[in-house]
């Protein structure tokens, strides 16, 4: 694992020079400075941050996470493509997560470097923004792999083989980091910050609410841990402005256009090429999800997926079925709510996801408010975000007409029942946008009573609780990787799993 590699598409050449020149000293013949030459001194935090922020969006839209989209029942493979035996059987090997691991760490390093460079010149606001984005990715990494290198990950030649931190310790460290980020964000922003900030355009309130939302996400994940008490962290969240609400979406857009390598990331990976061809012709709707939304007349279905090119209703494919699935032209591809335009904003954290988290926190008695109101607002925001016509009215009709969405179903029920109810509707709302969150909720609450999302591959046992550490770690950081002991994707639960 290259824990000190810079991964920057726009600045690739510039930053490669930095890596090559790290540690070099000026010799006695170096009497002139070339202002056009890339050096560690003139590649600033402001140059790195926009591309790092873009790449956070790239990671969340990445095909590296396609397996999670499939595992939780959102996507499946078209019938004219051979199924992936390792993925659909859940019998994965150590190389299964190599690309995901390395790509995530590359972006996390860019954000780390942004923070270090920003603090070195007194730009606490840019440092804080980088720390918030980092927390978004770090939690996903823990929720996918468990223990990982964190505190020693980017120490370069000083720590070439970083030790692993315990997952629970990383969660605690992320809470502290987000507290620090919120303090940094209250500093005086540079006059260039709004232009540099391609996420929130200089809106400090949104950055603060985003940090608070990530703090709540960390807490909600631990809700089933015996004796867990979130009171102190909840107090900080509420005292510092609360979490993201309707319309407060965290997106990134450096100026996406319909050109090669310049499209919005999810559109580029799961939408269409610049010439209008399907970018991922093997990706299709999952029959489980199509049936679920059809059973409740949920109008979001036509926003998630589109009718087959051969005509007919929205049609899914059964995940793990080796023969008999409809071919591509007879099955449904991603729809306009997810892939509306090559220029669309790339989501990092949609407001509706934050609102579902808040609804569960209220239901658990952690935060003040009325759980039903918070829940119903989250569902309405999901309809709005997807572009459902007459979204508020449509959402109200959906909730009133379906027991699985009508709060009356769980009114007066215990906390766990209400939490599962909210999480089940959050699952419906997150198709395509945050499969790791959906997988985490399934592992945390087992809230989907219909297990039809499980692969039908005859070789499969049960849905994995994690994936294995990547082979690249056993190769380049073997002692520390092996120190984590024997890991099973089926039995080695994360600390927050009941």
From TrEMBL:
It comes from the Bacteria. InterPro entries: SusD-like_2, TPR-like_helical_dom_sf. SUPFAM superfamilies: TPR-like. It holds the Pfam family SusD-like_2. This is SusD/RagB family nutrient-binding outer membrane lipoprotein. It comes from Niastella koreensis. The lineage of its organism: Bacteria, Pseudomonadati, Bacteroidota, Chitinophagia, Chitinophagales.
